[in-house]
Amino acid sequence: MGKTVLTSVRLFAVGADLSGHSNKVEVTTEVEDKDATNYLSQGWTEKLGGLASAEVSGEGQWEAGDPGLVDDASWSQLGGTGPWTIGANNAAAVGDLAYLVRAMRSEYKLGEAVGEVAPWTGTAKSSWPMARGQFAHPPGTARTATGSGTGLELGAVAAGQRLYAALHVLSASGTTPSLTATVESSADNTFAAPTTRLTFAAADEAGGQILRTDGTAITDTWWRVAWAITGTTPSFLFVSSLGIQ
After folding, report:
1. What is the DSSP letter of 117?
2. Cβ pair 59, 24 in contact under 8 A
3. pTM for this entry
4. Which domains does the chain show, CATH number per domain?
């Protein structure tokens, strides 16, 4: 991806797609610099990396009256932790660049002077490391039956690293609908004998989950999301992202 003008940043917060309600989104990562300067530092400061953190901040146009709108979502999420996925000026198609993190919704602000378009601002602060990865399932494709997504060559997971997976269920309809999503890996793109690495809790309404592997090495280099759907005339819209950190 070369130089770009920001026109299509995607923002998914737990079970809400805030892309159409946002006009500014920022992702910040930071490592504390700790001073280790001593008498043998030869007149130069010495620094050590301390604790790392990440933050997602956004702002845009305020709307309310539905669980997927910014006011309803912000109030329900305030003080809680959940998955956040940010698309880097793309359509959130499978394979598009994504940043994902488990974060606490720490701040929400609304209101402005008379005559202004009602705004909102909000912040979420990391509870897990932020991972840089790819979208594994797009937001606009409704799923009504069990299936699996397109494979992504994210690479192997080294010892001490983890595969992070975010699931944002944006809507669910039908009679007793149920969606159980899993993350599978494979040695190649055929997925002839895939291994299930993570299993999300069954979902029957809008919401979000984020999982990660246990830190042991995984030599498989291909990854995908799969899903099992049950119910009477079920239909789900959901987004998933995967990343290694």
Report:
1. P
2. yes
3. 0.95
4. 10-31+49-126 (no CATH), 139-244 (2.60.120.1110)
